[in-house]
Amino acid sequence: MEAAADQATTGGARRERGGRNARREQRAHAGQGPGRPYIIRNIPTYDILSEENLTRIETTADRILAEIGIEFRDDPAALDHWRRAGARVDGVRVTFEPGLLREVLKTAPSTFTQHARNPDKTVLIGGDAVVFAPSYGSPFVMDLDQGRRYGTIEDFRNFIKLGQASPWLHHSGGTICEPVDLPVNKRHLEMVYSHIRYSDRPFMGSVTAEERAEDSIEMCRMLFGAPFVEENCVILGNLNVNSPLVWDGTMTRVLRAYARANQGTVIVPFILGGAMGPVTNAGAIAQSLAETMAGCALAQLERPGAPVIFGNFLSSMSLRSGSPTFGTPEPAIGSMVIGQLARRLGLPLRCSGNFTTSKLPDAQAMTEATMSMLAAIHCGANFILHSAGFLDGLLSMSYEKFVMDTDLCGALHSYLGGVVVDDNQLALDAFREVGPGSHFFGCQHTMANYQTAFWDSETADNDPFEKWEAAGADDAAGRANKLWKKRLAEFEAPPLDAGVDAALRDFIARKDAAMEDAWY
Amino acid sequence: MEAAADQATTGGARRERGGRNARREQRAHAGQGPGRPYIIRNIPTYDILSEENLTRIETTADRILAEIGIEFRDDPAALDHWRRAGARVDGVRVTFEPGLLREVLKTAPSTFTQHARNPDKTVLIGGDAVVFAPSYGSPFVMDLDQGRRYGTIEDFRNFIKLGQASPWLHHSGGTICEPVDLPVNKRHLEMVYSHIRYSDRPFMGSVTAEERAEDSIEMCRMLFGAPFVEENCVILGNLNVNSPLVWDGTMTRVLRAYARANQGTVIVPFILGGAMGPVTNAGAIAQSLAETMAGCALAQLERPGAPVIFGNFLSSMSLRSGSPTFGTPEPAIGSMVIGQLARRLGLPLRCSGNFTTSKLPDAQAMTEATMSMLAAIHCGANFILHSAGFLDGLLSMSYEKFVMDTDLCGALHSYLGGVVVDDNQLALDAFREVGPGSHFFGCQHTMANYQTAFWDSETADNDPFEKWEAAGADDAAGRANKLWKKRLAEFEAPPLDAGVDAALRDFIARKDAAMEDAWY
């Protein structure tokens, strides 16, 4: 345990933007190949609104907070925090003078490091860093062979393994699917253990009850050593607002548990426009801002300096059927505004991911996923949950789509590399060598650059029609089906210290013995 | 004929950027619904390179033009133009002092109007306008029922009808597929006639020989009246550079024919990095700039003020197999730079489209298409050829993908609408009405806005899993298959003046009688 702690790298949650640590980490990882633990973007964010319009949205959020307020239910300690901070508390309704939350948020770090048990997989969150994590929270899993069924702990482990096997994800995620074959009150133990056992990347802990969050953090203490955890972020909790304008006590107690332990929280309003928020984009964005600011500020009141991520989960609805829709243009373009607002607050940002409502890993799935994912890329998201596997409006984790999505994540590594302008890239000598009417296949410049020039997809078929047809005329889903089976068959778990492993198993056995199974 | 000419709207090819005509047209069409004839973008372009790096690329293009030059083969009149303009002509090789082409390009309009036979379908090209046109040039067609086969004039007409039936395209395109059942030397007559007969939108003419371009323009004179055509752009020709750095005589003769008649040309280098250009993005972009500037300038020398579109067709290769790849990240991000360069030149821009190498309308097809198409949207493309149907690296026009792509074009109408910030969109009253913990389904603000709030896809399935399964568990390609058949079955051609129709048929009959069929 101490050995793991000693190997870990730079410091914890401090306001680091532009600081020496952040710059050092960026230099260390910029431009690395597939082995780099995260991306440093080399393209600017895509800012679509004027300062004036951003201010109008912020003013609307301030008025929502001051005139309507947010309910904090079943958590008296949260209300005490707000009273002490100078907010007005009336029953469970809290209203905030404009500027109050922004003042509280000044202690929140603009970038922070989340440590992995393998220090080479430690990630930077915030600034120009981009971290891809798999999808989160589906009750079902599906593949082309067996169709849709409830997820199990075996599926859960399979997805951790598929994630770990992909060089294009940076984070092991959290509740990748619900393992419904395990009791509700003990699931978190096996989930956290599985992340530790089958991945050496950073991961997320339980958020379904305060004691489960505490268990998740305790298991990290066994892995990293308690003193290291006290000073460094090693686990994240993903907290949903009960939009509109309600924070439930379960969520705020968990939020405070992570913050109290100096661990990271992702604050995520869940707004389907027309249901949990207004049907218009600007209003839903203002609401999202208000709800996120309140959650991030509560973490700061629990422990100033605790790492927080400015999250959102905006989507639209089919106003014909009332069904939620994902990967549609309005939330995609709305993400750009969310990104601008997060940067004005100076907080790390979480946005969208490979969203879709399709029930199959088909053309609809990847149209929607690509639009949604590119929005996260363009808006400047730092932590992109739901980067792989999302199907059927988050009801299913798809084995095939997981493979397609990680391939898209790979393409986005090249995309985020931007267009480099230097003498080698400008290639004037190559034009001199080749001249008009010839070709560049074998020229010196091509030979020197071809291995790194272009993204090389593992799932796309670029062969001539005849060759593709002779090979079986498979579609992308069929190829992905073969790939995930191959990767699982070839998987080797990263080595884990036997003492840590035994301590974790012992902890789980004691917890298991101490509690009756609960199934709901 | 004169009636059609009288109905046509504003003036032809003049330097209009920021001018009264452009602004008037923009106001007239901004924010219109599905019936608008083109889009006015309400989001900024996505500019990724600094002025300094753009200048380095421009300087490299200037050096390519000055030190290596471009060959203009089999067209002495083109060489005469260059000599008179002050370029150095050595055999067929032409070199250009830095600044020469930019000086010639000063007469090119930054925006122009392409007239449709139905004045309500007339489009603006350049500035903030965005025009979607179907894919162009495939020898094969395919659908899920019959698979891949050579295209026929019936397929060609079918695609015109499917385009005309979609509210999300703005232009009828050109050689949507090759009608290989017609003689090579007569195809263009039936193609131009079919655009006129089955669409009332603007379209493109033949580029395979000078006399076929002349025929295309002559048929427009019969439709719009010769005096109108002399003053206004009513047809476009799409001209490919024989990259690297060669303009073939067939292309420059056709280019000059369109320009001479005051008609529009789209100047398109075709560069697969590593084959027809360097394997590095910055160099391929510099080459594309050099080749496009030369083509656009030649049009200006033939007739100063002739409308030109700054085109490009950048893509990558699989360096494992040598196969071309489309919809990959490098050309997508490279498009952003192309957009910045076109704006610095002040020319309308054509970029990418729904590119893919997939052989099926599957997940690969739409991953690649969406990445490519969004690049065209973000980079500020004004005329987006290949917006619908592109499959198998442009070898096939797909009936199903045509439907999927036009649906994506519809989504992009909403995307380009951006985030509007006004009191209604900010929805403060809705928050007052609903308050914390309730929902927005039936509130006054939702009822007033829901019909226009969200893009309503015709091909996406947003139903719950059980409902989707009970309805047959179709994938997106299956739904698209049903949709194209329904649209063809319901198609009604827009009315065409019987006199014009008879004149066109008579022209074709006379041409047909005067030529032997040629099949290659």
Automatic annotation (TrEMBL), chains A, B:
EC identifiers of the protein: 2.1.1.-
Gene3D superfamilies: Trimethylamine methyltransferase-like
Biological-process GO terms, alphabetical: methanogenesis; methylation
Region (Disordered): 1-37
Pfam family, one: MTTB
Ranges of biased composition (kind: Basic and acidic residues): 13-28
Record flagged with keyword Repeat: no
Key words of the record: Methyltransferase, Transferase
InterPro entries linked to this entry: MttB-like_sf, MTTB_MeTrfase
Domain of life: Bacteria
Family statement: Belongs to the trimethylamine methyltransferase family.
UniProt name for this protein: Methyltransferase
Species name: Nitratireductor arenosus
Lineage, broadest ranks: Bacteria, Pseudomonadati, Pseudomonadota, Alphaproteobacteria, Hyphomicrobiales
